[in-house]
Amino acid sequence: QVQLQESGPGLVKPSQTFSLTCTVSGESITTYDYYWSWIRQPPGKEMEWIGFIHYSGRTYYSPALRSRTSISRDTSKNEFTVQLSSVTPEDTAVYYCARWGDYHWDYWGQGTQVTVSS
Fold first, then answer.
1. How many Cα atoms sit within 13 Å of 39 on the Cβ side?
2. How far is Cα 93 from Cα 36, in angstroms, rounded to an integer?
3. Which of 2, 6, 69, 86 could make an SS bond with 107 (beta carbons 3.0 to 4.6 A apart)?
4. Are 99 and 42 in contact (CB under 8 A)?
């Protein structure tokens, strides 16, 4: 059974940078041919794809967030991380990590709330 668990700060001040980590169990993040993803849902809005890191290590980002986003991984810990910089209150959302495989999102973390506020 594949499990994903997000962790990170719950509250961030505007203009700061925050990082969220997704710890994966039950599957290696280097297994062919999965994409390990970050997605968020702001309050009252639809889900928004942030980006993903391929099993190969290649990264892909949403054009809307590319300039402020970085996704990396630590294969020794089987985890991947998203970093978002220059945050504003509009970055307040529930952030999820998920796996993309076989043309669909098949496993999700439970989500973690990030609030941007002074």
1. 20
2. 19
3. 2
4. no
Answer for the pair 17, 87: CB distance below 8 angstroms, yes or no.
yes
For residues 15-46, one letter each, b for 16 or more C-beta atoms within 10 angstroms of the residue's C-beta and e for the rest, the string is eeebebbbbbeebebeeeebbbbbbbeeeeee
User: Residue 18: what pLDDT?
Assistant: 95
Taking the mean position of all CA atoms in its chain, how far away is CA 27? 17
For 74-90, the pLDDT digits (tens) are 999 999 999 999 999 99
Rounded to whole angstroms, how far apart are CA atoms 112 and 11?
11
**Are 101 and 80 a contacting pair, CB within 8 Å?**
no
**CA 118 to each of CA 16, 63, 71, 113: distance values in angstroms, whole numbers, following the listed order:** 10, 27, 25, 16
The DSSP code for 76 is T
Q: What is the token pair recorded at 60?
A: 């892909």
- Retrieve residue 28's tokens: 């290696």
